[in-house]
Amino acid sequence: MRTEYTWEIKIKNTPALERKCNRCNCNKFYCSNKFRMNAQKRNIDVWLIYRCMECDSTYNLTILSRTKPELIRKDLFTKFSDNDEDIAWEYAFSLETARKNNVKFDYNSVEYEIEHDNISINDILNAGDESVVFKIQTGFEFELKLSSVIRHCLGVSASQLNQMIEVDAVFTPEGYPIKKHKVKNGDIVLINKEKLQGIKSLGSV
Question: Do residues 135 and 31 touch, judged by C-beta distance below 8 A?
């Protein structure tokens, strides 16, 4: 018998953009969730507007440059025009967009919370299920370590998690290295109860 739980990562803000301001000494900009559009000779430019965290001066992050209108999906064009927040967040988390603009997003500035059932190691050990599965849901990827999510949701220390990893009591179907893997939507964490029971230090967790 197998029991599945969900760990849902709820993100509170977009990452700051690291760039030196031309007006002050600040080197962080925040996403305004607004777009700037410009049409010139049947070409469209689209930028996502960022503002300095200190003086509020603007920096335009290029989304589209010299693009023919017919090459832009109608629904996407409408979202740009309406300053759609969802699409703004997609670009604000996009590594590809950062690379194209030669900028860096500060993912450490992202605040989040994890909605999860309060399932402890003891609960897992005492349950009658043969296996326990945790599925991760997240709207965006921001270099959050899988190990951090596991420690938070299961209430284990770094040393206890290391023991679990060493005996394969916790693992992923794909064999991702848990301590290095960055969370992606749909990631799955599996618990081997038999091997978990062999770790004496987890008995009181």
Answer: no
* Cβ neighbours for 164, distance < 8 A, ≥ 6 positions apart: 156, 170, 196, 199, 202
**What residues contact 108, with CB distance under 8 A and at least 6 apart?**
none
Mean of the pLDDT values across residues 38-59?
Answer: 95
Domain boundary among 76, 102, 128: 102
- Please tell me whether residue 77 adopts helix, strand or coil conformation: helix
Mean pLDDT of 108-120: 94
For residues 124 and 193, state if they share a domain: yes
Computed on alpha carbons and rounded to an integer, the radius of gyration of the chain in Å comes to: 22
User: 145-156: per-residue pLDDT in tens?
Assistant: 999 999 999 999
Q: What is the pTM of this model?
A: 0.87
Total of domains in the chain: 2
Domain match, 95 and 153 both: no
